[in-house]
Amino acid sequence: MSRKDTSRHLADLAWFKSSYSDTSEPSDCVEVAIAPATVHIRDSKRPDGPRLAVEPGTWTMFVAGALPE
After folding, report:
1. Cβ neighbours of residue 1 under 8 Å, at least 6 residues apart?
2. Is the pTM for the entire model greater than 0.70?
C-alpha cells in the first residue's frame, strides 16, 4: 500500500463506480479514484469509511484476476 497522497489531495479525488456494478443495487458497489502514484478504493455505501490505497500495478493485477473469463 502507498501513503504518498496527503489528506489534502484525498479530498480532490474523482471517484467512479465500476462498469461491472450491478445496476439493480446502484449503491452497492466499489468506487475507485486514480491518483498518479496510487489507486484508492472504497465502499460506495460508506464513502467516509475506510479506504484502501494500492499501487497502480497491484490494481491492474487485481482487475485482471477479477474479470470474468
Report:
1. 52, 53, 54, 55
2. yes
